[in-house]
Amino acid sequence: SLGHILEAVGETIEPLPRHSPDADQAEDWVTFTLWQRLHQKLKEALYSITLADLYYDARSWQAAQGETNSFV
To answer: What is the pLDDT of residue 49?
Structure first.
């Protein structure tokens, strides 16, 4: 999966440096929670997409464009 490839080359999908929101500010908690949820969904997507998926998507697009030459 793309997530595993990113790990293998030392990349990270972590959001900006983690911080704890101010406990007194509701909007800080809302923003913090939103970013946590977005990060989780991004991880799920990256770990579910394979190189084969990307290749298929590229070939499908190429076919839709009427291109017959080889992609790879």
So the answer is: 96
